[in-house]
Design goal:
Keywords: Signal. With 136 residues, the protein is α+β, with helices and mostly antiparallel strands. The protein contains four helices and four strands, in the order H-E-H-E-E-H-H-E. 35% of the residues lie in helices and 23% in strands.
Length: 136
């Protein structure tokens, strides 16, 4: 069995509860309006670790936009199945309370500055936006 610290356990539990909250939200809870914005960045120089690090640095600054409810910056996992796309360099997963908050983020000066300062690094960007599906 893998040994874990109390701190690590609490961090993991807190993150899991935030991520699961929308799933367990009642019909009267605003969490059902959750808006998910997932961006995949394809670098002009895909193997350039300095470019990847620079982009991640910019995303960390961008994560300070107050309308963002939760953020995850990632790189391709080592998983390898035919349905997995691994050609991107960095993924940027954001959660907002609703579409209106995401629209504020799109026009936020930090976001506009990020595009101005870092867009020279990427060749292509793909965005997947989603809202909660109606159940029942």
């Amino acid at each position: 069995m893998k040994k874990t610290t109390r701190r690590k356990f609490l961090q993991t539990t807190a993150l899991a509860s935030v991520a699961a909250a929308p799933v367990f939200a009642s019909d009267n809870n605003k969490a059902k309006e959750l808006f998910v914005h997932h961006v995949y960045f394809y670098l002009k120089n895909p193997g350039n670790e300095a470019d990847r690090a620079k982009l991640i640095e910019g995303l960390e600054v961008l994560s300070k936009v107050p309308e963002i409810r939760m953020v995850h910056i990632g790189t391709p996992a080592s998983t390898n199945r035919s349905v997995i796309e691994r050609g991107y360099a960095v993924s940027w997963l954001l959660f907002f309370d609703n579409l209106e908050q995401e629209e504020i983020y799109q026009k936020h000066p930090i976001h506009l500055k990020f595009i101005e300062d870092y867009s020279h690094l990427w060749e292509k960007v793909i965005v997947y936006d989603s809202v909660g599906a109606k159940r029942g």
